[in-house]
Amino acid sequence: MSRSSYIFTSESVSEGHPDKVADRISDTVVDAFLSADPEARVACETLVTTNRIVLAGEVRAGKPGGDKAANKQLTKDIIKSLEPKVRAAIKDIGYEQKGFHWEKAKYACYLHGQSAHIAQGVDATDKKDEGAGDQGIMFGYASTETPELMPATLQYSHNILSRLAQLRHSGELSELEPDAKSQVTLEYDGNGKPIRVVSIVVSHQHKKKIDGKPATSKRMLQLIKPHILPIFPEGLITKKTQWLVNPTGRFEIGGPDGDAGVTGRKIIVDTYGGAAPHGGGAFSGKDPTKVDRSAAYACRYLAKNVVAAGLADRCTIQIAYAIGVAQPVSFHVDLHGTGKVDPAQLEKLLPQLIGGATPRAIREHLQLNRPIYARTAAYGHFGRTPDNQGGFSWEKTDLVSELKGLA
User: Fold this and answer.
1) C-alpha span between 285 and 136 (Å, rounded)
2) 162: enclosing H helix or E strand
3) Entry pTM
4) Helix, strand, coil proportions of the chain in percent (round to 5)?
5) pLDDT tens-digit profile of 299-334?
6) 303-to-141, 268, 271, 316 alpha-carbon distances in Å
7) Is 53 in a helix, a strand, or coil?
8) How confident is the model at residue 130 (pLDDT cuts 50, 70, 90)?
9) Which tens digits make up the pLDDT trace of 138-193?
10) Which of 122, 132, 106, 115 is nearest to 53 (CA)?
11) Could you give the CA distance from residue 254 to residue 50 in angstroms, rounded to a whole number?
């Protein structure tokens, strides 16, 4: 039985959320290695807590089979260069607090060489192509709910925090501190179209006073509401929309001082806000040979092009790999009953459009061996502008003309 309407919610977190601080640091490490060696391997995990930064994981720089001493030295040199880059990333976010300060926090790095047994599964040889770095399943999704072809609840949640961060950095909202969360609840009609904002939740770290007076939930609402209203299309926010801003009251202690942060703990925020399945693998801290990251980007790329071509209003793509094997073990397309073509037809065609969807083909097609990852670490990996507009290559819709022919 179809429903006349339903309610759905997604959340986002800011660049200053402790988990996102960890993601930013881990992706700063990825960028540092790819800047020195586009073929570098990185699997970096970061922990941040009160005035402490800890890096751990496996890395490798230099050509496989090349001079071992030279490769080892290059890896060591990159590792030694990381601390100022990490501190600069934290400064850029805006942390100069007593409990977490970009300059004063203690730094420890436990990065070491990549396992030879993992490397042998990934490395190409005369007898085999580059294999997947691990087994796993990845998903991509697109929907006509927003111009970005993203779930509206998540896109608006991202936009709220991104806008407040811009105003904080510019000094217009100097009362705000870096840590924040948002949550948007929408009512949808029976066709999946957003018709009303049910509630908006924002919890934002702040300074002790606003305009010389103690910060309260009411004053925070008055401060940020005018900047949030323009984010939503006209008519979605109504008199019935519930506003919950800092509902627990004061939020002065935040960031890694208020709660420890770890890489990869906001995977639903990073992807589709719960509107689509997730394979379970995090993105940040991983170089693009890791299919957890690169294949998820490829699935979004293909799903977005399917929807942009008008072949469906919604599209979910799943891909799966075995460690050390180049070819995917499965490729599935779900058009959620909105398709104008047979999904089986897309399952045959779409992998061919990206070289068979092998790890190497994905990296080359989307040009992923570049230092582009630090800017993915906050406000979602998807729904940004295409690469030629300062966004990401997996957001391009350059397959649309070819796919339209299928309709």
Assistant:
1) 17
2) helix 152-170
3) 0.95
4) 35, 25, 40
5) 999 999 999 999 999 999 999 999 889 999 999 999
6) 5, 17, 13, 6
7) strand
8) confident
9) 999 999 999 999 999 999 999 999 999 999 999 999 999 999 999 999 999 988 89
10) 106
11) 10
The CA distances from residue 70 to 64, 79, 109, 116, 348, in Å, are 11, 14, 21, 17, 44
Amino acid occupying residue 289: T
Helix (H) / strand (E) element for 40: namely: none
Q: Is a pLDDT exceeding 90 seen at residue 245?
A: yes
CA-closest candidate to residue 271, choices 162, 384, 145, 181: 384
> Which candidate, 186, 180, 188, 192, places its Cα nearest to that of 154?
186
First-to-last alpha carbon distance for the chain, in angstroms, is 29
Active-site residues: which are they? Answer: 17, 19-20, 45, 58, 181, 251, 259-260, 265-266, 286, 290, 292
Contact 326, 351 (CB under 8 A): no
How is 320-354 classified by DSSP, letter by letter? EE-BT-SS-SEEEEE-TT--SS-HHHHHHHHHHHT
Residues 380, 270 contacting (CB under 8 angstroms): yes
Q: Across the beta sheet with 176-189, what order do the strands follow? A: 5-13, 176-189, 194-206, 242-245
Read off φ and ψ for residue 323, nearest 5 degrees. -60, 135
Nearest to 20 by CA among 250, 269, 253: 269
Return the structure tokens found at 174.
């100097």
Residue 243 CB partners (closer than 8 Å, separation 6+):
199, 200, 221, 225
More confident residue, 72 or 25: 25
